[in-house]
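Dear colleague,

Following up on yesterday's call, I've attached the two folding results inline so they're easy to grep. Please treat them as preliminary; we haven't cross-checked anything against experimental data yet. The first protein's sequence and structure tokens come first.
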Amino acid sequence: MKFCRFQPLEFPVQRLAAHGDREIHPRPRTGIIENDKIVELSVNLPEILGALAGGVNGKTGSFPFTGKKWAVAEVQFLPPVKPSKIVCVGRNYREHAKELGNEEPKEPLIFLKPPSAVIAPEEPIVLPPDSGRVDYEGELAAIIGRRCRNLGPGDNALSYIAGYTCLNDVTAREFQKRDAQWTRAKGFDTFCPLGPVLQTSIDLANTNVETFVNGISKQSGCTSEMMFPVDVIIRFVGQVMTLEPGDVIATGTPAGVGPLAPGDIVEVSVGGIGTLRNTVIGPAS
């Protein structure tokens, strides 16, 4: 089942006129995607993450509706969540570690991206001034549904996940090589495109992760190639920090990373979820 956060692209003229001179900021809405329609819910997505992690599947009647439906073409998708943190796993695909001349990690290699880096589908990735080469890194991301910390041997790590989405771990490669840690290289505003939907269930053993730039395939991998699968990652991270509902775990990128340039269109596709699409623009003048 696919959930989304969205805003309608347009508002009726009479509704706008009724507000006089006041500026209107439409509130984010939540919906379930059914074919090419979005069935609007009367609850916000953050409010139901715990229920999704608890195993609510396949029954749209489990949630209250507003009675409204929207065509997908009539809305702007928003990031599925507003995370308190984005925890990323580096070098989780062997071929990606090799292509950058790195050794395979012995345990999950984690780092953070700030929430301020998150942008929605179709929003532009802005290349920072003097950043040199900036790369795409398409990834599967897991979204935490309930608080997770220090899981025991009998705890099912996957039961803490509300769903999955696409993520682009945009990276200023030259800063990554120059700095002792990766905060600057990974943390620029717009360096974490996220979305377009939250899919409650995928085949973690056999899901394709692909990246396209201007329609040309650049990355293609499968979750079966991960050195550390999702449940191992969740356990490892939960021993370091408390994971809160809405937090995002980026699970690593396949081989094939490469540079972005102004005017590029980059798409991250994950099987069973969909495609995250963003344009690339140069630094603001």
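Below is the second protein, in the same order (sequence, then structure):
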Amino acid sequence: MLILLRHQIIRLGLAAVFMAGGLYLAYLLLMAPHRAALPADGRLTAGAPLPDRQLVIPRLGVQVNIVADQLAQLDHGLVVQRTGAGGNPAKGGNFVLVGHRYVFSWVPARVSLVSVFYDLDKLKTGDAITVYWQHKRYHYTVSRTYQVKPGQLSVEAPTTGPKLTLYTCTLQGQADGRIVVEARTSS
């Protein structure tokens, strides 16, 4: 009888541990990274020097630094310029930036830090994007949002005119496809 009672207590204890762990895991998976809204014009603190390389998406509350073709830096909450297309705000062409959509972590603050493009699919035509490049400000307006297959790298193709292309994986992961946002320069 005592052994049977001990087994039941162990089972109940294990069930409580698994249930608590499952609830915490569900919380992490369902918790969307939230960012505070930014000024619509993408301006930073008045009087402060302009950043060297930074992406600001006011509608999504995104304000992150840009690094060149160092994909490992995505895990540090940065966006990466894909230099294969060869564009940038100063010289024109297709300026391509990539960032993580969702990265799981046991620490909720890290999920928010690294998942910079979590809400990228919520951008709409006409939304403003600001890029700070070499201490100058460049304004863009979203012109198109769409999805492509995983291997469809035509989104990185060079262009003759200035264009900003942002892309990330869908929430189902990189094997499912990519969300792409195209933006054109604006005054």
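For the second protein, one point worth flagging: The CA atoms of residues 50 and 136 lie 7 Å apart.

Best wishes,
A.L.
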